[in-house]
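#structure-requests
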Amino acid sequence: MALEQKVKYENDCDKEFASWVTSQTGGENLRHCIQCGICSATCPLSLYMDYTPRRLINLAREGFKKEVLSSFTIWLCASCYACRSECPKEIKVTDIMYMLKRKAIEEGVYPRRFPIPVLAREFSRMIFMFGRVNETLLVTDLFLRTNWFKFLSMTGLGFNLMRTGRMSLLPDSIKRKGELRKVLDAIESEEKKETVK
C-alpha cells in the first residue's frame, strides 16, 4: 500500500495561476474571501463535490492549479447562484467556476471519462459549426468519449426517436453562420484581451 501525500506546501503553488484567477472577470474580489464557509453551506451539491466551494476558492487563490482544474467541483456547480447571493464579501463564486471550467477545457486538464466537460466542449463546437446543437451528434460524441457501453445500450431508444421524427440524424444549420462566427470570434478575442490585462 503506497502512502499518498496529503499535505500541500507553498512550493506546490503556482503563483501565476493565482494571479491569473484574480485578474479575470469575477475573480477580482477573491482575495477578500474570509473563508466563512457560507458558499459551501448554501451549495446544494457540495455534498457530492471533492472540494467544497470554500475549499476550492482557497486552493484557487493560493495557486494550486492542478488540484483546482482537475477537480470535479467546478463541473458539478449547478449555477444556482446561492453561494453568490449569500456571500458577505460578494465574491462571484459561480463566475469563478465558469472561468475555471473554460481554463480546464483549454488546458485539457479536466477529469477523464467525466461527461460534463465533454458535453460543454462538444456543445460549443456544434454552436460554432452549425449555429445550433444536433442532439444525435451531441449524445453520440458524449457517449463515445465517456461511456460507449452506455451508448450501445441506448441505441434502441435512439432509433425509436429517429423513426418517430423526434431526433434528426443530420444536423440543422442556421442560414447566416458566418455572422455568428464573427460574433463568437469577437467574444473570444475580447476574453483573450481581458486575460492579458
